[in-house]
Structure formats: structure tokens, C-alpha cells
Write a structure and sequence with these properties.
single chain; 8 strands
């Protein structure tokens, strides 16, 4: 398959060789997500956004990949003066190449995280922006339910919301809300074999590598998954949807 989209990559952490290999494997579009672990000041995130919008875009272009950016406050990097980032988000959403907010959401699910998420979702609703929502490795059902509760209270349009790191434990919660499942492929999560075995349940989703240096990750997990599904004669239309068209629809790219 050509024209693959990786819908969730922490591009500031991706080495040049990663870009090159993704391009060789057929990845043509990437959604670069915000994550600065342990950020203490708003300026840290502003510099992070600037790096993605300049250096990362330049490196992507050199490899023939079109990079789109989502910005926001990740729950693992909420600065002390986070309200300043909230105030700046509308200006970033007006910039060329910025297609939404992400990665945002809940990790521990505490009151501070909930408040930061609520304020960001209000901005996303106002500007009609797509959103990539984080789900953690622990307490997944409880925190996914709380995330959906906050999103529903804000009134954001579910089809513009990707709830990421979907797996069999939360796929029905995501579907019940009407959001898009983010299909993060890795050995300690959703594997290609598991995806194949439950492809109908995941067919509304968007494939991604969630590449970062915070855990073992493979920047080629999306094209490898596409190849695995093709070799195992999965439905070609579903492969095309989860590897390209669903993401293009959510982000308008």
C-alpha cells in the first residue's frame, strides 16, 4: 500500500534515520504530536511547538513526508503556568500546518489534569479542531470513562476526537461515545496479530506508532502492520481506511 499515514508520532524525538526509513516504507503523511515530559514553564512548550513547526517540518520535507502538527499540554508535562499555554492555543491553531490539539488527556486522572483537559477541549470545540486524547497504561477503563465524561460535558464533536492507545479493553467505550480509536501498534499493547483477529471492531480507527524515546517503539510499526495485514489477506478496504483515509478525514488533510 502507498500513501500511508502515521497519525501519532512525537517527531521532536524521531531521529533522521527514522524519517528516512518511514519514507522508504511508504509513509507519506505524519501527524506530529506534542509531548515535553516534565515541562515546568510555558516557554518550554512554546519552544517545543516552534521546534516541531520548523526543524521537524524541514526534516520531514527532506524525506518526502508531509508533516502536520498537533499542539497542546500533555498530562505528563503540565507546566506550573499552564494557563498561559491555554491562552496561546488559538494563535497556534491559526498557523499553517497545525491541524489540532494533541497529545492531551488524562494520565493519573487527578483534578489538575482534568482542569487542563477541560480547558483545552473548550478551545478545540470553539475552533473546530481535531483532538488526540491520551489513555494511560493503568486504570484504563476508569480514566477513559472520565475522559469521555469531560469531552461530553464540553460538547466537542466525537468524530473529531481520537482516543488513542485503543485496545480490546476500551474499544467499546470509544465506539459508544462515537470517537475514533487510535490504534497504537506495539508489543505491549495492540499487536498486528490482535488487530487482524479483531479487525472489524477496529475498522474506524487510525494506525499510529506513537514513536518516542520513553519506551521501546518502532517508527516502522504502521507500514509493518499494513504489510502483515496484506500478507494475511485482510480486507483491503479496511486496511486503506485505518492506514490512510480515516486519519485524512479526521484531520482534513
Amino acid at each position: 500500500m502507498k500513501e500511508i499515514v502515521d497519525s501519532h508520532v512525537h517527531v521532536s524525538l524521531l531521529p533522521f534515520e527514522g524519517w528516512e526509513n518511514m519514507a522508504l516504507a511508504g509513509v507519506k503523511k505524519v501527524i506530529g504530536c506534542s509531548l515535553f515530559f516534565g515541562a515546568k514553564h510555558a516557554e518550554t512548550l512554546f519552544d517545543h511547538f516552534h521546534q516541531m513547526l520548523t526543524l521537524s517540518m524541514s526534516i520531514a520535507a527532506k524525506n518526502g513526508i508531509k508533516l502536520y502538527i498537533t499542539i497542546g499540554i500533555h498530562p505528563m508535562g503540565i507546566p506550573d503556568d499552564w494557563f498561559r499555554v491555554i491562552d496561546a492555543l488559538p494563535d497556534y491553531l491559526k498557523m499553517s500546518g497545525v491541524v489540532g490539539l494533541g497529545e492531551i488527556g488524562l494520565h493519573e486522572g487527578n483534578q489538575r489534569e482534568q482542569e487542563v483537559l477541560h480547558e483545552q477541549l473548550k478551545i478545540a470545540k470553539e475552533y473546530g479542531a481535531a483532538v488526540i486524547l491520551h489513555t494511560p497504561p493503568e486504570n484504563r477503563i476508569e480514566i477513559t470513562n472520565k475522559t469521555i465524561e469531560i469531552a461530553a460535558k464540553v460538547g466537542i464533536e466525537p468524530r473529531k476526537v481520537i482516543i488513542d492507545h485503543a485496545n480490546l479493553d476500551i474499544i467499546d467505550l470509544i465506539g459508544g461515545f462515537g470517537a475514533v480509536p487510535g490504534l497504537t501498534i506495539r508489543q505491549d499493547g495492540l499487536t498486528p496479530q490482535m488487530l487482524l483477529n479483531h479487525l472489524e471492531r477496529f475498522q474506524r480507527g487510525v494506525l499510529n506508532s506513537d514513536y518516542s524515546n520513553l519506551r521501546p517503539n518502532d517508527p516502522l510499526s504502521v507500514p509493518k502492520t499494513v504489510r502483515y495485514l496484506e500478507l494475511n489477506r485482510a480486507c483491503p478496504e479496511i486496511i486503506e481506511r485505518i492506514a490512510r483515509y480515516n486519519a485524512e478525514e479526521v484531520f482534513g488533510i
